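Exercise 7. Predict the structure of CbrC family protein from Lysinibacillus pakistanensis.
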Amino acid sequence: MTTFILEEWHEQRKNFNPSDPASINQMHEFKEQVKLDEQTEGNVRILVEIYCLLRMYPEAYKLFTTVMDLENKKDRKKYGALKYYMDNPNYSRPLYPCKIREGETKTVIPKFKYLPYPLQSKIFKAQKIVTCDCCKEEVDVYYSGGIYAIERAEYLCPTCIHSGAAARKYDGSFQEDLINDENVVNANYTEEVMYRTPGYVSWQGNNWVAHCSDYCAFIGYVGWRELLERGITEQFENFTAFSTIELSESLVNDGHHQGYLFQCLECGHYVLYSDFS
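Solution. The predicted structure, encoded as tokens:
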């Protein structure tokens, strides 16, 4: 293992953000760089850790079994964790490279008050060129989550949603309901979140949560693993009907019990909401 690879690995691991497409792409690129370097035991172990960060558990398991030392307590613990993911493949999904990276889109994304990470949160997509049903312009960033209206809209561009043009054209709203909003007295906040903020995709209808005296910012889709990765399993306000123990056992991103992570714009506290299929 070269000194460069080791130093770069420490830097990559420190800055890795599983919610950031650019960070995911960068980790995949570093993975390929390590694979091309001399395959010492040190490099193999770094590759195992990279595979784990990218949730590529079969690859991590296969590689780790070539270097593990079962007399070593840490290796036995690592093996047990990888074996668990091999036996439970639906616990989380691999983090694949994004087709279009942050900053490479041509479509201008307006600043959404309640959606600080339009692409990273996976509410907007950037995978192909589509025609916005509202303005009829071709765009490479689009929303396909639908709108609560009689007429169906397949694709909507960020600008039409942000300006309110889409809600006016379809005479609809992007949220089904608002939770804990009794302390939100500013009607402009409600108008913005209902008619000018795209909704997240959920099992039982997207319900936007409020905290303090405003609505929260949507951060992204999460399971218990994502909360662990963020280090906030004991730092969120629980707007679900389940205890933290129950959440740790059943909350799975892209699973039957889906979590939705918000953050209060006033106090900064994370807020967790969830629903079942």
